[in-house]
User: Fold this.
Amino acid sequence: MKLQLPNSVITQQDVQTLLLGVKDYARWFSHVDIKKRLKVKHRSDSGPDVTPEVMELIHDWAAQKPLSRQTLDELIDALQSFNNNASQLAITLAGPPPASLKRTLVEWCRKNIAPNTLVNFQFNSSLLGGIVIRNGSHVYDWSFRRQILESRNKFPEVLRRV
Assistant:
């Protein structure tokens, strides 16, 4: 079955949080399933306190195959495998990015690079602006600092014209 992460899951830490939530839900589901099979009366329980992202993921997973202890175990295995093998980007900006910028960059990465790309955001004020993207051993530097350093021989000429 295909794992499709919610758009709000951005970093590897988000995946780990999602994994813990699915494990909590699976324990609760297993407990309720045992009570049903043994015909033990139990009070109506709305389920564990999990995040909307966990419920969205479980709902999407259940749409592919009926929900059972086995399918929840398959989801947990898929999340663990994904967590170990996910493609990851590190994006460094000159300052902390607002949530809207994070969403935009993650959507672009998932649309143009890989559907379940994880993005780790960092900031470094010495960039002065622009962006640096690190993917594995590749570094793509579109920072103002790099542009200034590359053009440092042109500064005296520009200053003479002023």
Notes: Strands lie at 88-93, 118-123, 130-135, 138-143.
